[in-house]
Specification:
The structure is a single chain. Helix 4 runs antiparallel to helix 9, helix 5 runs antiparallel to helix 6 and helix 8 runs antiparallel to helix 9. The chain is of the alpha+beta class and 292 residues long.
Length: 292
């Protein structure tokens, strides 16, 4: 299910920006992009997300920066000593070879790799970690609110589709009931025609074969199962927990019964109803992919 939430905050010396979003997915795929120097934060975020979510491709971005009131970089003493040592060796080698070198400025030294260290350095980040951990809950609450709003809208759409499925199922039941007498009369006529033109045929065997054809043409079972699936789907919609996987399986069962109904219909009007059922079921299946 899609969702989005963002939060920002600051404490003395630090500011941050959270952004959490998700799109549809069959399973739960977490992609976390956050500073790795804040101890324990990623584990806490991952635990909180897996506790609330069961499906979706989820991306969380956290940007942390130092405030402009302080220097966002510091000099690394070991890196500076290493850089100056290399410069001294290079100067000595160049002098021995008679190669003139331009004077090195402090700005040149600052630009050398390892001299300046960005980020937290040796600063105490415990207060920052506490503040960010306190943000996880409110961020997920805002995220859940957007997902709940989408879920309510989806429930309305799926409910309308279930109403359509129920109406088509009732229509199929009426058509199947109306054709029972005609089907029985057709079978009796066929039996008489076969017996009249099949000298030596076993009447009981012929009757058994026609009885099997009658059973195969009977769609009562498929209609009953479609009605039962519709009731089960409505019960799922009223559940508060994750229902996406169960609903996805149920739509497969809907489609199976609709396919069988079409194959056994034997009449244009009943086949048309079966095709309409398949169309609505396919539309519902697309919507189910958005449900957690």
């Amino acid at each position: 299910m899609t969702g989005f939430a963002s939060r920002s905050g600051a404490i003395e010396g630090w500011s941050w920006q959270w952004e959490l979003r998700s799109v549809n997915g069959r399973g739960l795929d977490l992609r976390l992009r956050m500073p790795d120097w804040i101890e324990g934060l990623e584990q806490a975020v991952r635990k909180a997300l897996t506790a609330r979510l069961s499906r979706g491709s989820v991306t969380l971005n956290l940007r942390v920066s130092r405030s402009t009131e302080g220097d966002a970089t510091r000099i690394d003493a070991a890196g500076l000593a290493n850089a100056l040592g290399h410069l001294s060796e290079i100067s000595a080698a160049a002098a021995a070879a008679g190669v003139p070198l331009a004077a090195v400025t402090a700005a040149d030294v600052m630009g050398l790799p390892g001299v300046l260290q960005a980020g937290a350095g040796d600063d105490d980040t415990s207060a920052l970690a506490r503040a960010l951990n306190a943000e996880i809950g409110p961020l997920l609450d805002a995220f859940d609110a957007t997902r709940a709003a989408e879920g309510a809208a989806l429930a309305g759409v799926i409910g309308t589709q279930l109403d359509r499925i129920a109406a088509l199922t009732a229509q199929a039941a009426d058509l199947a009931e109306a054709r029972k007498d005609a089907v029985a009369e057709t079978l009796r006529a066929n039996l008489a025609r076969i017996l009249d033109n099949a000298e030596g045929a076993d009447p009981q065997r012929v009757a058994q074969e026609l009885a099997l054809l009658a059973v195969k043409a009977d769609v009562t079972e498929e209609i009953d199962r479609l009605a039962a699936h519709a009731e089960a789907a409505r019960a799922l919609l009223s559940n508060k927990g994750p229902i996406g996987r169960k609903f996805d399986f149920l739509t497969q069962e809907f489609n199976r019964e609709a396919n069988t109904l079409c194959s056994k219909a034997g009449a244009a009007d009943l086949t048309a109803v079966g095709l309409d059922l398949k169309s609505v079921i396919d539309q519902m299946r697309e919507q189910i992919q958005n449900v957690e």
